C-alpha cells in the first residue's frame, strides 16, 4: 500500500482469536459510542438497534467491522453472534473485545479482536451507526472496503485500488519465492536482495526467463 502512497491499512491491536483461519470479505461497519444517559432517548430499540441492523446486512461475502470505545470493551458474545453464524458471515473484526470465546470458537467464524473478556458492553458503550466511515484500530474503514485477515492480522483494502494492489502483491509473492530459493542454494546475506533492489529485479527476471525457456522445451 505504501508503494501507492496510501497510509498504513493494518488494523492495530486486532489479533486472530482463533489462529489458522483466513478471512476475506466486504466491510459492514458498526460504530459504538461512549454511554451517556441522554443518548438512550435517541437510540433505536430491539431489532432496530444499529448492531442488529448491521448483523442483518451480513452474509458470506461480508465482514462485520466494529469500532469499540476501548480495547477491553465487549462488542458482543455468544447470543448475539449466533445470528452472525446463521448469516454465515465471512468474519468479525473489532479493536475491542468479545465475550464467550469458547462458544464462539465452535461457530468457525474468523474473529479478530484485541482480546476476549468477561466484561459486558451496554453500561460502557452503545451501538450507534451502521455503514458510516469508522476508526477501527487507528485505520479508516468504509462500507464495502475489502477486509483481509490471516494469522498476522487484518488489512483494509479500498476497492478503488484493489486490482492494482492485488497485482503488486502477487508479483511480490513470486519475487520473494525466487529470492528465498536463491538464498537456500547460494547462502548469503538477505541484504543482497532485500529490501528489493536492482539485483532483486535482475534475479527475478533471469529466473522468469529460464522458466519460460524450460517450458518451451
UniProtKB/TrEMBL annotation:
User: What Pfam families does this protein's entry cite?
Assistant: RraA-like
Which InterPro entries does the record associate with it? Answer: RraA/RraA-like, RraA/RraA-like_sf
Report the protein name in the record. Answer: Uncharacterized protein
Give the source species: marine metagenome
Organism taxonomic ancestry: unclassified sequences, metagenomes, ecological metagenomes
Amino acid at each position: 500500500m505504501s508503494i501507492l502512497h496510501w497510509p498504513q491499512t493494518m488494523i492495530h491491536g486486532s489479533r486472530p482469536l482463533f489462529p489458522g483461519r483466513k478471512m476475506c470479505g466486504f466491510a459492514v461497519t458498526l460504530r459504538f459510542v461512549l454511554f451517556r444517559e441522554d443518548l438512550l432517548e435517541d437510540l433505536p430499540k430491539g431489532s432496530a438497534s444499529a448492531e442488529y441492523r448491521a448483523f442483518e446486512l451480513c452474509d458470506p461475502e461480508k465482514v462485520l467491522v466494529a469500532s469499540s470505545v476501548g480495547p477491553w470493551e465487549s462488542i458482543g458474545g455468544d447470543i448475539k453472534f449466533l445470528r452472525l453464524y446463521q448469516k454465515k458471515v465471512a468474519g468479525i473484526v473489532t479493536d475491542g473485545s468479545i465475550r464467550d470465546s469458547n462458544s464462539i470458537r465452535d461457530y468457525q467464524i474468523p474473529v479478530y479482536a484485541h482480546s476476549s473478556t468477561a466484561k459486558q458492553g451496554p453500561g460502557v458503550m452503545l451501538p450507534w451507526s451502521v455503514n458510516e466511515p469508522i476508526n477501527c484500530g487507528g485505520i479508516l474503514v468504509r462500507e464495502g472496503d475489502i477486509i483481509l485477515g490471516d494469522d498476522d492480522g487484518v488489512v483494509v483494502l479500498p476497492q478503488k485500488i484493489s486490482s492494482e494492489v492485488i497485482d503488486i502483491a502477487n508479483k511480490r509473492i513470486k519475487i520473494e519465492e525466487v529470492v528465498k530459493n536463491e538464498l537456500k542454494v547460494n547462502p548469503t546475506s538477505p541484504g543482497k536482495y532485500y529490501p528489493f533492489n536492482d539485483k532483486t529485479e535482475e534475479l527475478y527476471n533471469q529466473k522468469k526467463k529460464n522458466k519460460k525457456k524450460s517450458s518451451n522445451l
